[in-house]
């Protein structure tokens, strides 16, 4: 479940990185090949095999049954690409997002500079490309990103300064496939003149070989000609969060927080849905991983009292499991339950506190019961946990008079919620009226 995700990502990325590392990297003179997706095709074949191997390995390590109701989205890391011309303030804003929202910041440029310094076999090549303001072969960059993502053990990333061109974009897709959710692009818009001033100023102390007037002009040209088409691609998909990066840093950060709010809200809804799935499948381990240890709760079962801690809730999981085992032993139909989240709204109190309210419709053969639920979530290092739950019964409908024959067994394993259904949930959850 959620707590296991980083391990699965680690396994997948380890295999991917190994596959990418084995791809020969052309030397700096073979520029004619760049931009024609040759590298991407090479990455693709190796990565496909690596992916299959990593996914099998991850599945083999999974405790039996824990994956039954984990929606796909809950297992995948979220990625926001951060783009903008050189000197637009990407790194500055990412640093603030790390501090205030628990994102992991991976600057492709920083990773390349570190790789160069590490004495890697690609060191000279990287140094030459950076000095020329050109884009380093995608095999190197993607493998560094995949490795860093895996090593972080986390699931919420800002990938800064990447993808820099179409070839980068194809290389990323070939290696990452559907294993991550790219939420979109944070795009910092700042005119050339301002950025040039900033970079020349930064160049006085940065020690960067490319913070000089000559290389800066080359970088500006590469940005316009190669990176802007990637931004346009995401623009057409409605996935560019455009931010005016010209005002002072604090003001830009306010706009940045507004831009990331939909992504943050989506995560909170996903955490709530994962809790419902865990409850339906009586998966205590998964449920507990989504709770603060001192979670408070008011629900019909507490008769108006506020309970604190997890023991109260664990009782129902333990008893539910016992009832299921007893039913199985007696050859009776297994009890089954499935929850759907209806009309969710999310209110972000801070970037790390979200109030998720919805109607929970619980289906079982005994009938359908609706509950009004509110869950308050807190994020630590980008991981959401429930700090408070309020549930009230909101309506009930008795069982349909005729249940389809044999349906009880089929229902025992609740079907994972579909991507389409989730998209609808998110659409509803992210309506501005929720604020
Ligand atoms: N809003 C701002 N107003 C004024 N200066 C800024 C602002 N944002 C960043 N800076 C300064 O501009 C310089 C470039 O910022 P930063 O390194 O964040 O840009 P970047 O987009 O990451 O650049 P690059 O792509 O070249 O790495 C830094 O010296 C930074 O302190
Ligand atoms: O994906 C990438 C990112 C960076 N590069 C090279 O590094 C420099 C500096 O990048 P910054 O984002 O400004 O730190 C860039 O001009 C490229 O030469 C890259 O090739 N691919």
TrEMBL record:
GO terms for cellular component: cytoplasm; nucleus. GO terms for molecular function: ATP binding; calcium/calmodulin-dependent protein kinase activity; calmodulin binding; nucleobase-containing compound kinase activity; phosphotransferase activity, phosphate group as acceptor. Residues 201-211 are annotated as: LID. It holds the Pfam family ADK. It is found in: Cytoplasm; Nucleus. Its main location: cytoplasm. Keywords: ATP-binding, Cytoplasm, Kinase, Nucleotide-binding, Nucleus, Pyrimidine biosynthesis, Transferase. It comes from the Eukaryota. SUPFAM superfamilies: NTF2-like (SSF54427), P-loop containing nucleoside triphosphate hydrolases (SSF52540). ATP binds at residues 87-92, 202, 247. It is an enzyme of class 2 (transferase). One of its GO terms (biological process) is nucleoside monophosphate metabolic process. InterPro entries: Adenylat/UMP-CMP_kin, Adenylat_kinase_CS, Ca/CaM-dep_prot_kinase-assoc, NTF2-like_dom_sf, P-loop_NTPase, UMP_CMP_kinase. CMP binds at residue 168. A ribonucleoside 5'-phosphate binds at residues 113, 134-136, 161-164, 208, 219. Binds 1 Mg(2+) ion per monomer. Its EC number is 2.7.4.14. Residues 265-394 form the Calcium/calmodulin-dependent protein kinase II association-domain domain. Catalyzes the phosphorylation of pyrimidine nucleoside monophosphates at the expense of ATP. Plays an important role in de novo pyrimidine nucleotide biosynthesis. Has preference for UMP and CMP as phosphate acceptors. Monomer. Belongs to the adenylate kinase family. UMP-CMP kinase subfamily. This is UMP-CMP kinase. It comes from Cafeteria roenbergensis (Marine flagellate).
């Amino acid at each position: 479940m959620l707590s296991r995700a980083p391990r699965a990502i680690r396994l997948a990325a380890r295999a991917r990185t190994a596959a990418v590392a084995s791809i020969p990297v052309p030397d700096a003179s073979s520029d004619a090949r760049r931009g024609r997706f040759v590298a991407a095709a090479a990455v693709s074949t190796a990565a496909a095999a690596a992916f299959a191997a990593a996914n099998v390995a991850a599945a083999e390590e999974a405790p039996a049954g824990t994956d039954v109701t984990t929606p796909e989205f809950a297992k995948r890391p979220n990625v926001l690409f951060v783009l903008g011309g050189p000197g637009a303030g990407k790194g500055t804003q990412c640093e603030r997002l790390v501090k205030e929202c628990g994102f992991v910041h991976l600057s492709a440029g920083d990773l390349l500079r570190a790789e160069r310094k590490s004495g890697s076999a690609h060191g000279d090549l990287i140094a030459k490309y950076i000095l020329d303001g050109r884009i380093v072969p995608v095999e190197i960059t993607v493998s560094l990103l995949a490795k860093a993502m895996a090593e972080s053990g986390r699931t919420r990333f800002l990938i800064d300064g990447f993808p820099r061109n179409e070839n980068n974009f194809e290389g990323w897709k070939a290696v990452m496939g559907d294993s991550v959710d790219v939420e979109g692009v944070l795009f910092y818009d700042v005119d050339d003149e301002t950025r040039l001033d900033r970079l020349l100023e930064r160049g006085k102390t940065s020690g960067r070989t490319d913070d000089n007037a000559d290389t800066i002009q080359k970088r500006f040209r590469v940005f316009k000609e190669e990176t802007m088409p990637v931004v346009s691609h995401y623009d057409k998909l409605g996935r560019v969060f455009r931010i005016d990066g010209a005002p002072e840093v604090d003001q830009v950060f306010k706009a940045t927080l507004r831009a990331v709010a939909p992504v943050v809200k989506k995560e909170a809804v996903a955490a709530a849905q994962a809790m419902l799935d865990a409850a339906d499948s009586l998966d205590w381990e998964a449920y507990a991983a989504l709770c603060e240890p001192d979670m408070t709760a008011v629900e019909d079962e507490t008769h108006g009292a506020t309970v604190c801690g997890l023991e109260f809730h664990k009782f129902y999981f333990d008893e539910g499991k016992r009832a299921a085992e007893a039913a199985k032993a007696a050859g009776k139909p297994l009890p089954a339950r499935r929850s759907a989240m209806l009309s969710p709204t999310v209110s972000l109190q801070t970037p790390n506190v979200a109030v998720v309210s919805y109607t929970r419709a619980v289906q079982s053969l005994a009938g359908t019961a609706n509950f009004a639920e509110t869950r308050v979530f807190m994020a630590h290092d980008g991981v959401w946990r429930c700090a408070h739950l309020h549930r009230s019964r909101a309506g009930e409908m008795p069982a349909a008079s005729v249940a389809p024959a044999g349906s009880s067994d089929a229902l025992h394993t609740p079907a994972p919620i579909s991507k389409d259904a989730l998209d609808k949930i998110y659409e509803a959850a992210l309506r501005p009226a929720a604020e």
